[in-house]
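hiii so um. not sure if this is the right channel but i have a protein structure encoded as tokens and i wanna go backwards to a sequence. like what aa goes where. can anyone help
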């Protein structure tokens, strides 16, 4: 059974080597649909009987990561000159080893979150996919 939790956050970035206006600092209201897979719990009268996992538990895992690392911050690739200013001014940022395109960000989030669902609360869960919207009309899907 697959279940999905949606989360949104605001984050800035730029594509420093791109020839379009995406080279400039800009931000998005990102939206991620995070899908996990597991068996329905059948323990009679257990708190989570009939569920794969409580949606609140998924929210807690995702929100801790997103709020702590990404929300209202800037994502820049190592070597991006913008990071020098951001560090100097003590702004929130995440430095990564890739160009922060939607495709790369989706894969990075997947790789960071996948271990969080492995055996969570003693359950056999697997992160299945991340659908990341950079705008309401544009999204990428990464499946692990």
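sure thing!! here u go:
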């Amino acid at each position: 059974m697959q279940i999905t939790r949606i989360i949104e956050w605001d984050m800035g970035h730029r594509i420093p080597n791109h020839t379009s206006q995406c080279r400039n600092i800009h931000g998005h209201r990102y939206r991620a649909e995070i899908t996990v897979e597991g068996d329905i719990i059948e323990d009679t009268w257990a708190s989570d009987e009939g569920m794969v996992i409580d949606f609140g538990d998924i929210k807690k895992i995702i929100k801790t990561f997103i709020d702590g690392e990404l929300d209202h911050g800037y994502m820049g690739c190592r070597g991006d000159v913008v990071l020098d200013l951001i560090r100097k001014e003590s702004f929130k940022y995440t430095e990564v080893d890739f160009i922060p395109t939607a495709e790369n960000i989706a894969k990075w989030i997947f790789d960071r979150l996948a271990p969080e669902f492995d055996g969570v609360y003693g359950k056999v869960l697997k992160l299945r996919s991340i659908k990341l919207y950079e705008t309401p009309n544009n999204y990428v899907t990464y499946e692990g």
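oh and The longest strand covers residues 26-38.
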